[in-house]
Amino acid sequence: SESVSREISGIFFLGFAVLNFLSLQGYAGNFGVLWKESVLLPLFGLGSFLAPIFCLALGLSLLLSKKIQFALGRTLGLTLLVVSTLGLIQLSAPLDALFESARDYGGYIGFSLDFALLLLFGYTGSAVILGSLELIALLLIFNISFGELIDFFSGLFGEEDRRKISKKEAASIVSEELLKPIVRSLRDRKKDDEIE
Predict the structure, then answer these.
(1) d(CA 150, CA 175)
(2) For the segment 64-112, what is each residue's pLDDT rounded down to a tens digit?
(3) CA-based nearest residue to 20, from 36, 7, 38, 34
(4) Cα–Cα distance, 38 to 34 (Å, whole number)
(5) Is 69 helix (H, G, I), strand (E, B) or coil?
(6) How much is the average pLDDT of 115-119?
(7) Residue 91, class by beta-carbon neighbours within 10 Å (0-12 exposed, 13-18 middle, 19+ buried)?
(8) Of 58, 84, 69, whose CA–CA distance to 137 is shortest?
């Protein structure tokens, strides 16, 4: 039946989460070493440490919910979130060693995305695109509007800080928050260039 197959999938993902965690910690024997060194670190880099968390959350949601619907939009959103996060992590790698440092940053997935984006749009353009993809992914995952997403995050700061804001105000807040790290990074790079 549908509930049994869902629970089997949930148990599989819980086991897989534990196996990933043990592999990353070096407690899964030869298979764990092979899995970590051949799959997790090369593909996901620092993001490999999120794999157990993702599998654990997926397994628990499959076990504890009555009905899970993974629509195409949610699946696309989750994929986009993982890929763009790996791209943002890899974007912080030294540009002169982008490929060599892939295992230590965003893995080969992050490297592949950044390589194409850096060639086409440069550093700042790549950061803007990846930040935009993160926001789009959140909208797809939660199936909500941009204003509702801002309301959700503003609600995390307590009732006294919570207020309704217009979509224009929300766009201004988000674009300002997205641009702060980009501007800071550009200033740092300019200072580094002046020092050299």
Answers:
(1) 12
(2) 776 656 666 777 888 898 899 999 999 999 888 888 998 899 999 999 9
(3) 36
(4) 6
(5) coil
(6) 94
(7) buried
(8) 84
Task: List Cβ neighbours of 183 (8 Å cut-off, separation of 6 or more).
Answer: none
Residue 35 structure tokens: 């899995």
Nearest residue to 55 via CA among 32, 82, 94: 82
Q: Where are the alpha helices (DSSP H) in the chain?
A: 2-25, 29-35, 41-44, 51-64, 72-91, 107-142, 146-155, 167-195
C-alpha 93/C-alpha 81 separation (Å) is 19
Lookup: tokens for 77: 């959103």
DSSP per-residue letters across 126-154:
HHHHHHHHHHHHHHHHHT--HHHHHHHHH
